[in-house]
Specification:
single chain; 239 residues; alpha+beta; ten-stranded mixed sheet; 34% strand
Length: 239
């Protein structure tokens, strides 16, 4: 009696030098920063307002092909840009998206403001994040006019696989160009724009859009509470 042995799935991975990785991430994040700054512009630019929360959070959406971009904007009084930037980072935002974040760590620092991060969600997470892991870069930049930007996006899957092998039971997720723009308005207020891009490969159910709207409002609200509860908090991470 003969048996057929199925070949193990092959996952492509690229091993690149740290210098090449740094150059790639710097170029990719530069493009992401420009996209975020464009999204923070108060002009229409194809944005459709979906909701304005009682607290003043404006949620809007833009679609190009299969790409869905969600934007939340909020004027924060009594919070300086520097204070909000202590919680405007990939790890704190991931904790707000889903509480079942089982691992969040900086795996490589390429520059003082440029890092590679691994985010892993567990079996109890919501369907969008369940048993998924993300290998993302995070770049923090101070613009000449005082605007602060945090750009976050996944590395290409081949580079991510070479840098951090995928866990056997995990699904490698994809986070498109996303992040924060924090504009200084006065000594103790700022305009915060949070942009998230999703590619669900087609139709996005209305019920999911509604849940995402609520989540976007909650994320900024919760992060603001963190800032006010610990105004001198400084985000640190291991090298």
């Amino acid at each position: 009696m003969s048996s057929t042995i199925s070949p193990a799935p092959c996952t492509r991975s690229w091993s690149i030098s740290e210098d090449s990785l740094r150059r790639y991430v710097f170029h990719a994040s530069e493009n992401c920063i420009q996209e975020l700054l464009s999204a923070s512009d108060s002009g229409d630019r194809g944005w459709k307002i979906l909701a304005i929360d009682n607290g003043g959070v404006e949620i809007s959406k833009r679609r190009t092909g299969s790409l869905h971009t969600f934007r939340s904007r909020w004027l924060l009084n009594s919070v300086s840009p520097q204070q909000f930037m202590t919680v405007a980072n990939a790890i704190d935002a991931a904790r707000q998206w889903d509480r079942d974040l089982v691992e969040a760590k900086y795996i490589k620092d390429l520059e003082d403001n440029l890092s590679i991060i691994r985010l892993r969600f567990g079996d109890s997470s919501k369907p969008l994040f369940r048993n998924r892991e993300f290998i993302v870069y995070e770049r923090r930049e101070n613009m000449d006019d005082g605007t602060l930007v945090v750009a976050v996006a996944s590395l290409p899957k081949e580079i991510a696989a070479g840098l951090q092998p995928k866990q056997n039971n995990a699904i490698r997720g994809l986070l498109l160009q996303s992040g924060w723009v924090v504009e200084k308005l006065s000594d103790h207020s700022c305009m915060v724009t949070y942009v998230v891009q999703l590619d669900p490969a087609g139709w996005l159910p209305k019920c999911f859009v509604n849940r995402l709207n609520t989540k976007l409002v909650m994320i900024i609200e919760n992060l603001k509470k963190q800032v006010l509860a610990c105004p001198t908090n400084v985000v640190e991470h291991d090298s």
